[in-house]
């Protein structure tokens, strides 16, 4: 583990207690965020990521898909699985509303995520009943769909609250490095544990169904251990945090009015106007910078999901590749993601998240077109051993930047007060946009008049480029805006020409 990423100076500790949360001197939140407390919190969260990733491996992805294939599940079931995870994000605003009225981020996470992870024990029991002949495979498939729906719903209640918790604990100067390290360790866990778990399932003496039940049970235990790691993180009281933010805004308004008093003979109108502005800043729909980010994020989710869910289908169906090759390419993609996360994190801390998203987003827009360079009639050795591996390495490296910088920029553009409500709104809108993109992508892929999957990939590339336009107008705090960058470049070019 890179210890430098988890170490911080006194000035960085001051930054998180003053610049991010801005509590008043009497706030209880400020003193609790000590240097040692934050360092312990970040280490605990890193370990939490490792155990949580292992649970996600066992209850989603290729292991769950292989389990459903063994049960002869229909393609409709697989479509429902991918759409449920995005649609349930609609419940996140309600979860954020409830979380802001609690007094502990940790206890709220324990209730929601604990319930979500314990529900998977029902599938373990279902697999045992299937082995004893008490229920049939169709009933197990229905049980899987119900569990996936309920677990995603309960987990969605905590998503925005957890992100708000981490936004408070991670200093702004370390966000890129820390989340890069945390995500890279999660990718490493995924890279190592997926083949090991798959081997355990396939070699289990009682068969693959029983083997999956055993691996899933171990995964649930791992998920509960990850929740235990959160106990060592500094807890945050959302009500105290919001109260501190309101006091800070009120003090700023009073200070601004005092500065303007010397320029006016009647200070009452200024006070009223300042109160209106403060209220406007608290409203999501009047926060123009956040709305610009929301437009960009929802557009990107739509454009990306037009084609993203169909890459594996293209390899397995159109290209007729064996599943062993597909899992191998997936490992290469995870490895590239692992290596690039820390690099992108350090770069984001230096130059900002928005410039990286603009550049990498334009590069990622070309990814769907790369698949069109592969011959569909007969896969040659060039495609099998070079082109397809390069595509997946390319995707892994690019998506590391997109996931990391989108998350960091999201944290930056949201205010301190009711931060989880902002996160929930983004998740809800982005989830609906992603589900809409997947649905429309499925219709386009099945319609021969659009050219099938090849036409879908071309359409997705165009929409990905268009989705970057709103990002140009998002202002990242502490960084230059797009127009400022253009103006500075113009001034620099003029100075060069004149010299």
Structure, described:
The radius of gyration is 25 Å and the shape is globular. It folds into two domains: 30-239, Up-down Bundle (Growth Hormone, Chain: A), CATH 1.20.1250; 284-478, MFS general substrate transporter like domains (Growth Hormone, Chain: A). The chain has 23 helices and no strands. α17 (323-351) runs parallel beside α20 (381-413). The relative contact order is 0.13. With 499 residues, it is an all-alpha fold. Mean pLDDT is 78; it is low at 1-31 and 264-281. Helices cover 78% and strands 0% of the residues.
What key phrases describe this protein's structure?
single chain, 499 residues, 23 helices, disordered N terminus, Growth Hormone, Chain: A, 2 domains, mainly alpha, globular
User: End-to-end distance, in Å?
Assistant: 49 Å
Tell me the Rg in angstroms.
25 Å
CATH homologous superfamily grouping of the largest domain: MFS general substrate transporter like domains
Supply the number of structural domains.
Answer: 2
> How much beta, percentage-wise?
under 5%
What is the succession of H and E elements?
HHHHHHHHHHHHHHHHHHHHHHH
CATH topology of the largest domain: Growth Hormone, Chain: A
The parts where pLDDT drops under 50 for at least 5 residues are 1-31, 264-281
- Main β-sheet description: none
Report the total helices.
23
Mean pLDDT: 78
Kindly state the number of beta strands. 0
Q: Indicate the overall shape.
A: globular
What proportion of the residues is helical, as a percent range? Answer: over 70%
CATH class of the largest domain: Mainly Alpha
Give the structural class: mainly alpha
Per CATH, the architecture of the largest domain is Up-down Bundle
